[in-house]
Specification:
Strand content: 15-25%
Strand order of the largest sheet: 1-10-9-11-6-4-5-3-2
CATH architecture: 3-Layer(aba) Sandwich
Largest sheet: 9 strands, mixed
CATH superfamily: Zn peptidases
Structural class: alpha/beta
Shape: globular
Distance between the termini: 30 Å
Number of helices: 8
Order of helices and strands: EHHHEEEHEHEEEEHEHEH
Number of strands: 11
């Protein structure tokens, strides 16, 4: 395993069009999305809330100009009509369900907010980009939604996916010393302040992680980003590395990275009834969303 920080990466030449697109994101927009979604919405236990959440997200995507569909038996939300699905698309994904009885503001309304911010920015500034957006259901039930998507959509070639960016809890920040823990079993050193964005990459997705680090370094050099790059099958020995919707993509051989605030290793409200909108840092979430937008635009323009 290798840990790399954004400060150690090389910067690109800034593109002012990309900067302008990313800067359109407002913290108030992100907070509004989180506050709307932060109700218990587990697939089995809160069925009606889960269903209404799916339809609200789909409505938002349609309002930006995307055609959407509910895919599979678990109602994954797919918006991909803006790209030529016979070409290689970049996928941005985030699950929308929550643990039973928890409002799930960070887990995972924060990530859905970043996904919607990215979708809205691309619809406004780059409507022809080959990007598809997927909000998965049943992540909290063993990744059932993303596994079904990969099995029936990606693996069968219905959508050609060049790379997948999976967002998993991206809104919690704590600047205090000692606020960041290290996942057990990982022989690495990490900052002890929970104020950085974490990127988890497998061997075939290290170039994706490097792009995120370079983008952060180029446009927001003061914002800390840390990448954990996993080699030699270590992910099979440490289940903590495969707990979110990036794992089915890894299993199918599709390059994928996970964007995260590191969940319970920073956020004491993880899977608790206290995971509420008021606990999040919306300036942090805005910066993550901006890096996401800039990364996707940079990746699109680097395609041959």
């Amino acid at each position: 395993m290798l840990v790399q920080r954004s400060a150690d990466s090389h910067a690109f030449v800034p593109d002012e069009w990309i900067r302008a697109a990313a800067n359109d994101v407002a913290a108030s927009f992100l907070q509004g999305v989180v506050e709307t979604l932060a109700v218990p919405r587990h697939y089995e236990v809160q069925r009606e809330s889960n269903r209404l959440t799916a339809h609200w997200i789909a409505h938002q995507l349609r309002s930006y100009g995307y055609e959407t569909e509910l895919q599979g038996e678990y109602a994954n939300i797919v918006a991909g009509s803006r790209c030529d699905l016979h070409a290689a698309c970049i996928l941005v994904g985030a699950h929308y369900d929550s643990v039973p009885g928890t409002p799930g503001a960070d887990d995972n309304a924060s990530a859905v907010a970043a996904l919607l911010a990215c979708a809205r920015a691309l619809a406004e500034h780059a409507p022809a980009c080959p990007v598809c957006f997927v909000s998965f259901n049943r992540e909290e039930d063993g990744l059932l939604g993303s596994a079904d998507f990969v099995r029936t959509i990606a693996a069968e070639g219905k959508i050609s996916i060049r790379e997948a960016h999976v967002l998993e809890m991206v809104g919690y920040c704590d600047h205090r010393p000692g606020s960041q823990a290290i996942p057990p079993g990982l022989p690495i050193q990490m900052p002890d302040r929970g104020d950085f964005l974490g990127i988890l990459a497998l061997e075939d997705s290290t170039a994706m992680a490097s792009t995120v680090l370079q983008v952060a370094r180029t446009y927001w050099p003061d914002f800390p980003v840390l990448s954990l790059k996993v080699y030699a099958g270590v992910e099979k020995l440490l289940p903590v590395l495969q707990r979110s919707d990036h794992a089915p993509f890894w299993g199918a051989g599709i390059p994928a990275i996970m964007w995260t605030d590191t969940a319970e290793f920073r956020n004491k409200h993880y899977h608790q009834s206290t995971d509420t909108p008021d606990t999040l840092d919306y300036d942090f979430l805005r910066r993550v969303s901006q890096i996401l937008i800039a990364t996707i635009l940079t990746s699109v323009h680097s395609q041959p």
